Amino acid sequence: MSEWVLILGGSTGHGAATAKRLAKDGYGIIAFHFDRGEAKKLAAETITEVNETTGGRCHYFNTNAAAEETMDKYITQIKEITGGEPVKLLLHSIAFGTTTNFFGEKPVTQRQMDMTVHVMGNALLYWTQKLYAEGLLANGSRVMGLTSEGNYVAMEGYGPVSVAKVAMEAIIRQIGWELGQYGITANAVQAGVTPTRALTKITEGWEAWIENTKKRNPMRRNTTPEDVAGTISMLLKPEADFINCSIIYCDGGESRSGSF
Questions:
Q1: Would residue 209 count as lying in a domain?
Q2: Are the beta carbons of 233 and 17 closer than 8 angstroms?
Q3: Has this prediction a pTM greater than 0.90?
Q4: Per-chain mean pLDDT for the chain
């Protein structure tokens, strides 16, 4: 297989698990991450594993993928890496935004809201526009983003991210509607509550959150990044060509089992 996938946020959590899974599936991996300190060490471990699995067909860039200058600079490199061929997948897996309430001691600011919605929502649109304009998205390509139950449930400290997720879902729906005629599909994958590094940044009570979620999940366990990676792997198969403008649930039925 000579196809490539592009992952925005591919160093830890869902993005890392997806990179590892798709590497095993035979895809070349192009990924962006923005890690410093301890997170940079975790990213290095992911990169090493993916590089070994792909036999060197692995390109990771540690820079802000949500910045327009990054898109303009690296899309040229992406085109060189793929030999001008379209990528099979553009996955948005960036988990970086402000987690705070709208009111209280530290209410979210306009700058924080704008940043969160841009990084976790709007940036996917701009990447898609630029890749499409360069012929890097074509018949059979997939555009995907990761969403969560917080897209319709109010939760402590999750307001800004919730707004971003809703924006991303609308963007994905519109991308699929406009580009579907060219064989390019766009879908969101809704994961259940997953014990990842990103989750620990949302609330100090994340451990209790994990345990409570496990109890209400029909399958009595939490979602794992590998669950999500497996779902994305399936959605790249030809049998999924007609799935478009949709939200795919990968949560064991968690979102259908009562209050949060």
A1: no
A2: no
A3: yes
A4: 92
**Mean pLDDT to the nearest integer, 135-160:** 92
Which tens digits make up the pLDDT trace of 187-233?
A: 999 998 877 666 555 656 657 767 778 888 899 998 999 999 999 99
Residues of the domain holding 188: 4-194+225-251
Concatenating the DSSP letter of every residue in 30-82 gives: EEEE---HHHHHHHHHHHHHHHHHHTT-EEEEES-TTSHHHHHHHHHHHHHHH
Q: Tell me whether residue 204 is in a domain.
A: no
Residue in the structure block whose two tokens are 């949560």? 251
Quickly count: other Cβ atoms within 10 Å of residue 97's Cβ.
Answer: 25
Q: In 3-state terms, the chain is what percent helix, strand and coil (to 5)?
A: 50, 15, 35
- Residue 126, token pair as written in the block: 């701009």
The answer to whether 195 and 10 are in contact (CB under 8 A) is no
Mean pLDDT, rounded, for 46-63? 97
In the chain, the largest separation of any two C-alpha atoms, in whole Å, equals 53
Both tokens assigned to 182: 């060219």
**What element of type H or E holds 32?**
strand 28-33
pLDDT at 245 over 80: yes
Name the domain count of the chain: 1
Q: Is residue 160 part of a domain?
A: yes
Give Cα 209 to chain centroid, integer Å. Answer: 22
Could you tell me how many helices (H) and strands (E) the chain has, helices first? Answer: 8, 7
Q: What was the pLDDT predicted at 155?
A: 83
First to last CA, the chain: 42
Asked if residue 208 belongs to a domain, the reply is no
Look up the CATH number of the domain holding residue 45. Answer: 3.40.50.720
- Pick from 172, 4, 159: which is nearest to 85 by CA? 4
